[in-house]
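To fix ideas, we quote verbatim one protein's residues and fold tokens.
>
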Amino acid sequence: MSLNIVLVEPEIPPNTGSIARLCGATNSVLHLVKPLGFSTEDKHLKRAGLDYWKYVNIVYWESFNSFLEAQKELQLFFFTTKTDQPYTSAHFDKDSYLIFGKETKGLPEEVLTLYHERCYTLPMPNTHIRSLNLAMTAGIVLYEALRQCSGE
């Protein structure tokens, strides 16, 4: 199996493009939960320079609920600024799903409440900064998961 990155209703094409490249480079699966804030039709991807898109394993989901219902809870890891639990305290395995919300709102509050023990954050000591870029956050977390899975 492989690690999985899940983007719930992503809104900003360059973020999704960067994360798709990250998934392709690491042989991770990218899950895109609809609705998307952009088109993934071939002509739009070519215009954005995403010529590597065909080399990325992408799974589309019609809704977040359909995605959640199809997964095992212990494989789910949710990332949010609304918790104090650092991502380094998570114990990832090769079948983990790293789940990120939309850029403007994050993950739904009811999901954060339901899965509060499975929510993690990236510490940001500067209180003037609200959050990190989605693609940067996904990269940091994915490489920590890869490190853990390699046994290092």
